[in-house]
Amino acid sequence: MDQLQRKLRDYEAAMFQQGFLDDQFSQLQKLQDDSSPDFVIEVMTMFFDDSEKLLNNISRALEQIPVNFKQIDAYVHQQKGSSASVGAARVKNICATFRSFCEAQNRDGCVSCLQQLQKEYSQLKKNLQYLFRLQQEFKAAAGSIPTGE
Amino acid sequence: MSLLHVIGFGLKVGHLLLVLCCWIVSVIYINWFVSMDNTKMGFSGDGGKMWLKWWEKILGSTCKIHQQYYQCIGSKRVRRVLWRKLLLAWVLIWFIVSLWIFCFMNLQVTEKRKETLASMCDERARMLQDQFNVSMNHIQAMSILISTFHHAKTPSAIDQKTFAKYTERTAFERPLTSGVAYAVRVLQSEREQFEKQQGWSIKRMDTLEQNPVHEDDYVADALEPSPIHEEYAPVIFAQDTISHVISIDVLSGKEDRENVLRARESGKGVLTAPFRLLKTNRLGVILTFAVYKRDLPSNATPNERIQATDGYLGGVFEIESLVEKLLQQLASKQTVLVNVYDTTNRTQPIPMYGSDVSGDEFYHVSFLNFGDPFRKHEMHCRFKQKPPWPWMAMGTSIGILVIALLVGHIFHVTVNRIANVEDDYLKMIELKRRAEAADVAKSQFLATVSHEIRTPMNGVLGMMNMLMDTDLDVTQQEYVRTAQGSGKALVSIINEVLDQAKIESGKLELEAVLFDIRAIMDDVLSLFSEKSQGKGVELAVYVSDQVPRQLIGDPGRFRQIITNLMGNSIKFTDKGHIFVTIYLVEEVFHSIEVERESTSKDTKDTLSGFPIADARRSWEGFQAFSHEGPLGSFSSSSNDFINLIVSVEDTGDGIPLESQPKIFTPFMQVGPSISRKHGGTGIGLSISKCLVGLMNGEIGFVSEPKIGSTFTFTAVFTNACPNSNELNKTQQINNQPHPASSEFLGMAALVIDPRPVRAEVSRYHIQRLGVQVEIISDLKQGLSAVTDGNVAINMVLIEQEVWERDSTMSSHFVNNIRKIAEVDKGIPPKLFILVNSSSSFKASSATSCVYNPTVVTKPLRASMLAASLQRAMGVGNKGNPRNGEHQALSLNHLLSGRKILIVDDNSVNRTVAAGALKKYGAGVVCVSSGIEAITMLTPPHEFDACFMDIQMPEMDGRNPGYARAMFKAWNGWICFKTI
Predict the structure, then answer these.
(1) Nearest 5°: phi and psi at B547?
(2) pTM of the shown model
(3) I need a surface site. Which of A17, A46, B63, B352 has the fewest CB within 10 A?
(4) Please, which domain of life does this record's source organism belong to (chain A) (predicted)?
């Protein structure tokens, strides 16, 4: 039990430390209470769906010739907004770089950014899913999720 | 001597000239410069005004001549060139002037010389003329004598002998004549008779003249007899000196003949041209007068005269000796050369007197009149010496030139110097600018670096926090705690440095928010309570009742000042107390006057009994006290502004006297050992001073080594409820107890404490809970108060000191109280012991008595006191939630009943925002676009606030048209989200 709790805490801390997540995520966790027990997971699922859709859109838009950078910028902006509000720090940072490339109309930069974005995103997704699984396990064992503190 | 004077005078004049020139030049310069546009205006017509302005300007400019002088001259390179030209012109002008002066003076000298010469010459000529005239008159007189005694008498009264004698004896009257002779007119018809009568024949002169012979060889008899002529004029009488001319016919000599003919025609004295005289061979002239038979009228014709002629009297003048004699009579004979010429024939003047010694080329001509209109004579005078060099003129002009050059030089040097100074000045300005820029850059660098350090340090601290939560063994935890402590210290130092940098760059601004000063002081107390307990130092805060509960100001900065001062105090205080008091300035002002009268210097009357530095001295220098009259500044604005005076007194080491003046200088510490011992950067006090300044207050201190220091500062805050008057305020405070302890309202407490100051602090804190407080100084009185008092005492608070002093008395007191309670069938008053640090009391309290009183650890503060009282008395709700939960609970209802609209095209964002707002009990409506938002927000609607993304497709919050549409629909709160 304790071991599980520690593992969960360690893992979470590691994700913070590596910069996958930031303070916004802990704020999000604080929002979760008895009235909405799965708030974080709900939001995250929404974020994942949204992101996948957006990433697809971006990659498709990048293949078109001529490239509609304005459109891509709008997509990336959305992605940035949503990642910021869930606290996915690294994804957010890449989005910021991406947007600067869009502004400069640099297609190669955009493509490499997209690749990075996809990589980061999938890593985040994997990590978060693992975290959620741990939480579920812990919840099943203890009946409540420990707060971030 | 005189040369020195001249030079001195010249220098003075030069200086004067320089000043004058400077003045004139600058005036002209400035006016020309300033009124460039002015003249344009003046042309438009308003001439009089313009002149007035000009005049004013001149007057004004003379006043500030010096600044403008430096300002105007050489403010540009062009001006220097101008100056050089001006200088050149100056030198040239003076050169010309000196040249002119030289010429002028030279001319004057020559003129004067000429005049002198002329006057001398004229004088000589006149004298010569006069003397000649005298002689001539005399000869004329002789002619009359002859006509009277020789012709008018028969026989003649004069013969040669008589004549010679007479002339000899009257020769003194004719100094100029060497001899006088009389020739008679003899016609051809009378010749024989005449020759017979005289006994000699008439002789001729021509040959004589042709071969002049020496006197010695001269024999009259050898002369040839005169050939036959129409008439003759043989000399019959002659002075002895010229007796050789007797019997010679003067008409036969060419000169004499002309002379004789002219003389008898004119009837006046007639002169011959100069010629070599017979015998003497000297130059001479002969004056001839005609002797007539009868008196002729003055207008007689020449013919009549010729007819009437009887004879001719001639006098021989030796011009050379004549002039010689004359010149000898006059002074300065040596300086003047005199030449006399006969200029009857203009083209060939005959020299009569003079040498050929060359003198000055310049000569003066005076005309001589010897009474013969036919003959013309001139006297030429010249100086023997050539004219001397005109030293005077040369000296004067050179002197003037030298002075002018000197002035020019001074001018030049001055202008150069001004230019140099100005160059230096410009350089210095440039350097100053650079230095200032460097200073700004340094401050900015400091601020940036501090900021940059702080950001990662926060990360370090956060990670430390997390690390603390992980499974660590004791040693590791110790390490982490140390690291965290160091990190916090570092962050606080960086914050201080940032503050300093902000203050230096003037970027620090104060907030104006509502705050409760008492709560702030409680916070500060709890911050230091651990430290003070550890050191065994008593810590206390007292806030005057007059201070309003709610103030508007910057609580953070206020707290920073207090924390700084208290932190310093704690550092340097090992025993005794630290006491913070907050009063209104007015209160203190009144109390000063009271205390001054009483002058009770009871050192025991302090919080811990240790002596303290006199706080009053620390604010002696404050302007608020010294400048304004009594209450001048406070009373008028007391309703709007609250003047607080805060003192922090300690009984620590004090500040060494020599460091006291520098105490508010940044990075100043008393000594290097201090920072080693206590740490700190030494900018706390400097920041505090700045902050106090920003709060329109003043800070001061008084410190006595080994006794302690007292820092006092004033600060101005805005009253949160300015309309309530003094009386209401006090009531308000008393009626508004601590929110967490409303359950104590109406209770009464007894504080037993012999020290009034400390008791007053206790009273203040307890009263804040709504409890009535009575102060008693010892246990005995306390007992009687509990027993006899008509008010039921709910609690008794006893100082540790009193409690421990006499254990029997204490137990007696406890027992009695219990008894009273039993008698009255009421609840006995609870006993509290006020202790400084919990550890010090434990030992004694365990043994003291059965009735174990509750221990309350100082420093006293409302929340802690309330908690202790609640625990001991069991009042209030048992299930009082923990502090954090309590807060969360209140937050839960923060937004209950409010409706909020969320506008965002991002579903994730929308959900998160909705979740967050719902947590605080708000009703949330989400829409995904700006157009929807506008329709939702079109009145009437029920939203209290609207949160929206600033950047969305279709409707961008930064789009002014959209923003206008939004504001039209909605004039409530809109919060734009930016990432």
Answers:
(1) -75, 125
(2) 0.44
(3) B63
(4) Eukaryota
> Of the candidates A9, A27, A42, which has its C-beta nearest B469's C-beta?
A9
Tell me phi and psi for residue B663, to 5 degrees.
Answer: -65, -30
Write down the pLDDT at residue B363: 81
Question: What is the predicted pLDDT for the residue at B966?
Answer: 64
Q: Which of B647-656, B821-830, B847-856 has the lowest mean pLDDT?
A: B847-856
If DSSP codes are grouped into helix, strand and coil, which group holds residue B553? strand
Confidence of residue B534 (pLDDT cuts 50, 70, 90): confident
Cβ atoms of B957 and B929 closer than 8 Å = no
Decide: B578 and B537 in contact? Cβ < 8 Å. yes
**In this structure, what token pair is assigned to residue B682?**
């030494």
pLDDT exceeds cutoff 90 at B426 = yes
Out of B345-359, B417-431, B738-752, the most confident range is B417-431
Distance from CA of A134 to the nearest CA of B (A): 18
Least confident of A86-90, B16-20, B463-467: B16-20
Q: How many Å lie between the alpha carbon of A111 and the closest alpha carbon of chain B?
A: 23
Report yes or no for ipTM above 0.90: no
C-alpha closest to that of B420 among B105, B73, B789: B73
CB-based contacts of B896, cutoff 8 Å, min separation 6: B920, B921, B922
| Other beta carbons less than 10 A from residue B42's beta carbon | 17
Give per-residue pLDDT as tens, B293-309. Answer: 877 777 778 888 888 88
Spatial CA neighbour of B864 closest among B769, B755, B743, B749: B769
Give the DSSP letter of residue A144: S
Half-sphere exposure of B317 (CA within 13 A, CB side): 31
Chain B, window 471-500: residues with a beta carbon less than 8 angstroms from a chain A beta carbon: 471
- A and B: number of Cβ contacts within 8 A: 58
Residue B188: C-alpha distances to residues B181, B182, B217, B313, B758 (Å): 21, 19, 31, 20, 177
